[in-house]
Amino acid sequence: MGFRSKRTQREYGATTKVADLFERYRRTLQAPQRSVETAAAEVLSDLLGHPISPDAVRYTPATRTLALQLRGPLRSEAKLHQEELLAHLQGRLGVKNAPTQIIT
Questions:
Q1: Residue-wise over 1-13: b if at least 16 C-beta within 10 A, else e?
Q2: Helix count and strand count (H, E) for the chain
Q3: Which of 27, 62, 64, 97 is deepest in the core (most CB within 10 A)?
Q4: Over the range 19-33, which residues count as b (16 or more CB within 10 Å of their CB) and which as e?
Q5: Sign of CA dihedral 34, 103, 85, 97
Q6: Per-residue pLDDT tens digits for 5-50
Q7: Could you tell me the residue ranges of all domains in the chain?
């Protein structure tokens, strides 16, 4: 018992918040490829009003490029709403994890 009482806060170090313990990982980790593809398919479905499968969306994390494999009118509508799609994905995934360009 005396051992703990003789130690000072300086010897143990200051207390840290639990949220601060994960700060390093928050800065370095990226969203998984499949979660970006799923989020993009959901946002596209909402914007276009047509169900889009996550299999129709490909994401390359190294270049942060989103490739859409859509047909005809859906492809042209996706191209028209490209900036809005990127803005929604930044809001949902964060600036660091969101794609920067879309290939249709």
A1: eeeeeeeeeeeee
A2: 7, 3
A3: 97
A4: eeeeeeeeeeeebee
A5: positive
A6: 555 555 666 677 777 777 777 677 667 889 999 999 999 999 999 9
A7: 32-103
